[in-house]
Amino acid sequence: MILGLFAGPGGWSRALGVLGVRDVGLEWDEWACKTRVAAGQLTIRSDVAMYPTWPFIGRTRGLIAAPPCQAWSLAGKRLGLIDQPLVHQAVSDLAAGRDTREALLGACRDVRSLLAAEPMRYLQALNTVGEPNWVAMEEVPNVLPLWKQYAVIRRRWGFSVWTGILNAADYGVPQTRRRAILLASRVRTAQPPPPTHAKSEEPEGLFGPGRTRWVSMAQALGWGATDRPVPTVCAGGGPGGGAEPFPSGSRKALSTARDRGTWTPHPDTCLQHSGRAGSEPAARSSAQDGQAGGHPGSEADWSWSLRSNNQAHATVRPLSEPAGTLFFGHRSNKCTWVAEPTAPPTGDAESPVVPAPIRITAQEAGVLQTFPADYPWAGNRGQVFSQIGNAVPPRLAAHLLAPHLGKTLTPNDFTLAT
Questions:
Q1: Which residues of the chain have pLDDT under 70?
Q2: What is the pTM of this model?
C-alpha cells in the first residue's frame, strides 16, 4: 500500500488517483474525512500520533506525510520555531527507537509542533523490514531544517534524499505557493521534478525543453482578464451548519461554455461568471447589487485582483497572474476579489463607481489549489476553507509522486486551461 499521514481532504490522494493508484489516508479532522469519503478515498479516521505502526509493517511501498503547518506558518504565531529544538530531539529519539514524545510534548509551546516528528515513528518501524521504497513529505518553508535532519537519517538507512523549497506555480498551479519538500528513495536517485512552467515563457533550447508561462487565475477559473466575479448569495446551511460553502443562485456550479472572456477554459473547471469582457454586466438581483456596491458600469472599466487578507501587507495579485499563497482559517472571510479602474477618467467624465470587494468562494479557492470545480467539500464555510488552505495542491503532488510510480504526466492530466 501507499500510506498517507495527515491526509487532509485528499490533495495527495487526488494526485495519486490521476496517476492511477490509491493510498490509505490517516486523518483526524472530521470534515476532512467526510470530504475524503465523498471523493471515494480510502480513509482511517485517527490521530496519527496515537495510531499503531504494526498494521503497515510488511505491506507499505510508499509513505506520504504533510504534518499540520499551523505551528510553523507565517499565518500563525510560529511557536513551532520556538519548539524546534524539542522537535529535533523527538526525531532523533524516534529514529533510534526511543519514544520520548510524552516528556517533550509537555515542554512544547504549541502542542501541534511535535506532529512534525510523527513521520519518523512510522519510518523507523517500517525500516526494520526494509520499507518503504520511497517517501514524499511537504510542509511550510520554516520546516526545511527539520526535513534536512530527516534526510541525514534516511541516508544513513540507505536512501537517496533531496530536500529543498519548491514553488507550486512552477508546476502549473495557479498560485505562488512555496513549500519545503523532502523526497527519498531506495531504488532511484531522489531529485525534484523538472519545472514545467516559469514566470515568463521560456522557449525550447539546446539545454532542455521550454517552459510554459505560469498559469494565471483567469486561466484557471475560465475568466477573461476583466471579468467580474458574481457575489455569493448564501441561503440555508451547509452540511456542518452555517452558511453554504458554495454560492446559491448567483452562480452555477459548472459551465460548459468555452467562449467566455479571452480564454478557452476546460469545461470541467470553467466557473460561471457574469458576462464577456467588455460587455455590459449581466442583470443582478437587488441582493447582489447590495453586496456589489451599486452599478459598476461596463466590465471593461475594471481590472480584478485577489487580496489575500485585510492587513496592510496583504498580497494582491491581478487575475492575469497566479494567486499568492492561499491560507484561510480565521481569515477565511477576508480573501476577496477587489476591483480597480483600468484607467483614470478623462476630461469631464465622471469617476466610475468601483464595486465593493467580493469574497472568494470555496469553489474558486479549490480550483486555485487545482482541485476539480465539483470536488465534494464537506462542512460549513469555515470548515471547507480550512481544508482548502491546508491541502497540498494535487497538481504539485502529482509531479512529486509520478517519478516514484514510474508515471509520466501530460498537460491533460489536470483540468486546467493551458
A1: 70-80, 206-208, 225-301, 329-333, 343-352, 414-418
A2: 0.82
Residue 394's nearest CA partner among 66, 69, 14 is 14
| Residues whose CB falls within 8 Å of the CB of residue 146, separated by 6 or more in sequence, listed in order | 84, 87, 88, 91, 116, 139
Distances (CA, A) of 340 to 250, 303, 305, 344: 22, 5, 8, 10
Domains (ranges, CATH) in the chain? 2-201+391-411 (3.40.50.150)
Enter the DSSP assignment of 56.
G
pLDDT per residue as tens digits for the range 162-203: 999 999 999 999 999 999 999 999 999 999 999 999 999 888
- Per-residue confidence (pLDDT) for residue 20, from 0 to 100: 93
Cα gap 372→415, rounded to integer Å: 7
Pairing of strands 212-213, 302-307: unpaired
Determine the Cα–Cα distance for residues 159 and 372; give it in Å rounded to an integer.
Answer: 35
CA distance 17 to 415: 13
Peptide bond preceding 132 in cis form (omega within 30 of 0): yes
